[in-house]
Each structure stands twice: as C-alpha cells, then as structure tokens.
Amino acid sequence: MSITKQLLESLAISSDEYQAILELLGRVPNELELGLFGSLWSEHCGYKHSKPLLKLLPKDSSRTLVSSGEENAGAVDIGDGLAIVFKIESHNHPSAIEPYQGAATGIGGIVRDIFAMGARPIALLNSLRFGPLTNSHNKYIFNGVVAGISGYGNCLGIPNVGGEISFSESYTGNPLVNAMCVGLVESDKIVKSTTGGSGNLLVLVGAETGRDGIHGASGLASKSFEDDRELRPTVQVGNPFLEKILIEACLEIVATDHVAGLQDLGAAGLTSASVEAAANGNGGIVIDVSKVPRRENGMSAYDVMLSESQERMLVIVKKDRMDQVNEIFGKWGLSTTVIGTSTSDGYAQLFEGDSLQAKIPVEILTDPPQYIPDSKVPKNLLSVQSYDLTKLPVNNLNPEELLLKVLKSPNISSKESVFQQYDHQVQTNTITGPGSDAAVLRIKGTSKGIALSTDGNGRYCSLDPLTGGMIAVAEACRNVSVVGGTPIALTDCLNFGNPEKPEIYYQMQNCIKGMVLAANTLGVPFVSGNVSLYNETRGESIYPTPIIGALGLLENFNHSVTGSFKNPGDIVVLIGRNQIIGELSSLGGSEYLEAIHGLNVGKPSIDLDLEKKVQKVCVQLIQSNLLSSAHDCSDGGLAVTLAESCISGNVGFQSTTNIIGSWEAALFGEYQSSVVVSLPSKKLEQLENICRQKNVPLTNIGILGGYTFNIKPYFDIEIADMKSAWDMGLINALSSK
Description:
The chain has 26 helices and 30 strands. By secondary structure, it is α+β, with helices and mostly antiparallel strands. Among the domains are: 1-41 and 191-366, PurM-like C-terminal domain (Phosphoribosyl-aminoimidazole Synthetase, Chain A, domain 2); 561-737, PurM-like C-terminal domain (Phosphoribosyl-aminoimidazole Synthetase, Chain A, domain 2), CATH 3.90.650. The radius of gyration is 26 Å and the shape is globular.
C-alpha cells in the first residue's frame, strides 16, 4: 500500500515518526494501523511535546486517590467516605469552526470523563477566551459558544456554577473553550478504565457511530489550522438528552458487580477507549468493527475506529453478566452491542468479520515519542518588560471617567448576561453561584461544602511566563480561599501555540515551571489536566494561557462569604498590604493599561510566601465567622475590587486612608496576594491579632455607608452610576455595530 504524504499530514504524523513506526512494527502499516498511530500518538492523546514538562507538576497529597495521568480525571478524598472527581479540558479548535457544537460537545466530553469513573456530575464551570467584540466574527463565535454551553449543559441537569470570560486580540480566530466538570462518588467505589483481565466483553452503548469527528484528535487538535481548510466534518454533533440517559444508566450499572471497567469514547473515539483500557488492564483486545452500530452507509474500519461521534461509552462486562447488563440498559431504553473481548496477549487486533484488519502491540500504540524542543526567549519579551511606565501616553480622562471606562470594559464588566443563560441551581446544592470569586456547593448529607474556581491570565503569561504561571495557580487558589475553602487540589488546561517553535516552547516550559513553584509553595497537587497546543491561526499564536481549576474544601458550608459589601458601618480592611502605595511596576499587564492605553507591557510579580500566608489567614478569618465579605484583588486592581463589592452589595464606601505615590498605580495596579474584607468594627481587634500572629500585613482603608464610592480626592461617584457602567459593558459591546 502506498502511504501518501497527504495521509501522514491528515494524521499529524511526521516523516521521522513514520520511520519509527516502520522500525517498531518491522513492516509497513496499512491505512487503518497508521490511523491508530496517528490518533494515539497525537498531541491530544499522547502529550508528546508536553509530557516531559507535566512530570514536574506535584501530583500527590494525603487526599489524592487518583492522580494526573492515571484515569479519565483526578479524585481526592474529602472525608465522610466521599471523593470529588474533577477535570478541566479544552474544545478550542472545534469551537472556532462550529461554535455551538464545538462548545456543546466539549461539555458532553468532560461530563463523560467524570461519570466514567462512577461519579455523579454535580457542577460545571467554564473558562472562555475570545477576540475583541468589535469584530463581528468574534461576536458570532462568542454567541455560539455561550449558546452551546447552555443548550447542552442545561439539558443534563448539571448546574453551571462558575468560570470566567475575557477578551484579547490574540484569541481572534482561535477562541479558548475550557470546560471543567466536578463529580461526587463514594471514595471506595471509583471505577477504572480497564479491560480487567482476559475474556471480558467489550460492549458499546449509546449513540450509533457516524463519520463526525474523524481526525479530531490527530488533525484538528494536534496542529494549527487555517481559514481555507474545510474542517466542519471534524467537529462532533451532540445529543444532550441521550447523554443524560447515559449518565443515569452508567451510574446504575457501575453500582452493580457486573462490569470490570468503563470508558468514554472521546478524543480518537473507539481507538483510544479500547486501546487505553487494554493498556490499563495490561492486556489486549479483539474487536470486530463490523459489529459496531453505524448511522451511515459505506463506513470503513478506518472510519469506525477514528470516529468521534458523541454520547458513546465502552462498557467492559464480566464474562457471564451480559444478561443482567442488558436488562439494566434496556430499562433506560439503551441497546448494547458486544463488539469484542479482552485478551491477555497484549495485542490490539481489529477484524471486519473474519478478515484481520490490524494487529499492533498495545504497548507500542500507547508509548508515543516524547520531544523536548529548542527553547528561545521571544524576541520582543525584554522590550515589553522594560517599557518605561513613566512615559505612558497622556489621556484626557479624569479619575472618575477612568474608573467608569475600566468598569465597562468587557474583561471587567458583569457577565450576568451570560451566566443567566445557565441553570446554576439545579440539584439544589448551590450556595454561591456564578459571579463570585468562587462557587460554593454543599455536600448533601454532611456539613461539608466545596469551593470551585477557574483562573488564568494570558496577558501576564505573555509578559513573563514564569511569573504568569505562578499567578495563575495562586489566584485560582486565592479565589477559593476568599470564600472560605482550603485549596486541596488543582486541575489544569494548558493552552499554547505551536510547541515546535522555540519561542512558544519557552512560554510553555516557563509557565509550567511557574505553576510547579506555586503549587509546591501552596501545598496543592495537580490531580488532572489537559494540554491544548497548536492554538494558532494564520501563523499567529494565542497568548500563553494556562487555565487552572481549583477545588477547595469547607468543613462547614455555612461558614462561607461572598465579595458583596453588606452592612453600613462595617470596617473595610485590605489584607496583604500595610499601606496604599502606588508603584508603577504594579501596572504591568494590567487591565488599566489595556483598557485605557491599549498596551500590554511591563512585568508582573508575586511573592508566593506572602500569598500562602494571606490565603491561610483568609480561611481562618472566615471559618472563625469574623468577616462579612471577602473579595480577591485581581483584574482592575483595588479600585475595581472595591467598586465591585459596592455594586453587588448596593452599599457605599468611604475611604479613610491616604494614597502614597502614583494614585493610578495604587488604585489600578494589580498587586497580587491582596484581599479586601469587611467586618463589624467590634471584630476588628480579633482580625488584627490573627494577622499579626501570622505575620500578614493589613491596612484599614475605609468604612461602609451611604450611596457613593468615595476615595478623596479621586472618586466621589454614585453607586448607581458605577452599576450602570458595570452592568451594561458586555451587553453594549455585543450590541454595537
């Protein structure tokens, strides 16, 4: 058979990799066999450019039950015989091509990863990045993605409780759609994706197999794409109603003793599901592709094995339990098909009827090459880091106009118009929903709660990948800390451009190093994750954007707070800083520079030791019931943090502190490791004592009351005027021509 350059390109197999395949097999593979290699050696499945770096991430703690790379998702013990299973994953390129279906099937895929481990999905979050809404195509992508998330997620009956959205020119044509799902399971009933020994039955349940999604993992997710390529057939089409039935049926089936393993058909479809299950079972598989139910005529074995049709599960049924399994799935209106068996010989053997189509050792398929590319500092990095911030362009806006402009920028303004499309109260566990620093859910039957957040800042990472990686982890953990949760585990979705370019690999390498430093300092492991590379369009890369999902644990879900100011007369304290001083360096990578000056320059910074102390103090203060509110200082700086707390609580703020140095830097600089809290004056002494004992700086900055935001001589604005700007910023951007 002639192996064409076009076929190798469609599978993202390099000429060197093809030569390696020839040497490993000792023969020329046929097209189907090459397709198996293309899928399982793809960036999406094989992590060939990232695995050496991912090994650096801390993975274990006393709570870790299933760690990164072991199963479909990570699992951590939360006590009371319960575990949380969670993971974040990308569906970026599909969403660029077909925004609705790309986002919808991204939700479907991450949900299947969770219930494949026997966990009931209890929460969804999403972290989204788009190009500026001044571009009509970016608006089209934005609207389609949001509709896809709500259209699929709402049908499943899983609350969408949080996430974040931001905009930058670097995401034009290449949006980021990162979806996180969280599940709950009894800690001794976690299901593995394994064939479980020889002689078990490989059973397909769910949707029929079509041609949608072929080359999704090997092509669409493993190389850059251009506008003139016709890629729509590689985007899957979802059916959320079928997935809802699959959730219930699979959770019922794994509660029995009838199955040895369970695996979803996600990236690379039946290929990855069956071969990876065989690898986990230290065995092999025999599959007859002619038995796979199909919804299209004329499908080849290649089509069947590489299809990424949605809502399909591979159930590994024990030898003598098929009747019982059929009875349970039949009750849910689902048909099953036995397509093969597990073996002990270590081979993946694919037949079509009696005709052998492929035979390859499983260990070869699941051991892709690993690369450590050249690393090179991006050519403009030093110049943007050393930008002279004393020479910012002059603007004619007064301080109040500056604040209102930042508040209505799409990155800062309210996202309520988005999350009101999501059902975040279904299952009746949501204590704090979207729009807060982190979501809080109760764990029914216990006093416990969990806090969930996602975070990442591509601007920071583009200016200083090492520091940006540290900040991404720190802020995700800080978000759960300020609602009262102790961070106990992390998941990551690492979104970068083409790693074969030295400047991109430098970004990835240093972002991950920064993540390692922060996670080790804070003592929080990464238990799951996903890598999305080749995020480029027409040769232009996105910002390096590591997205971090954080899980926090509250021993008592009633001991949580939100960022909203609540009580006139409460004292407002800034934890993490002992004075309000404006250093121009704090403007590096800030929303202020972006919104006001159209610049992304400077060098962000963070003190990880201070960060750790601030987070621990926040959790202690909240669990001690001292605080009325707590809000993380992040995008937009102190002025925006205070304004958001005033707006959401409809309470005024009167400053009682002086500003030293640059007022713009003091109020809009994005100092890390800072939290704004409010509390009754009678509790102030306790707060001061705790902070002093923990060596955490603080400064009393004001008092709540009235209906204005007052920091003399800079601001004296009606809360209603700030609210109008903040509420309408995103809506106006979407409605503008």
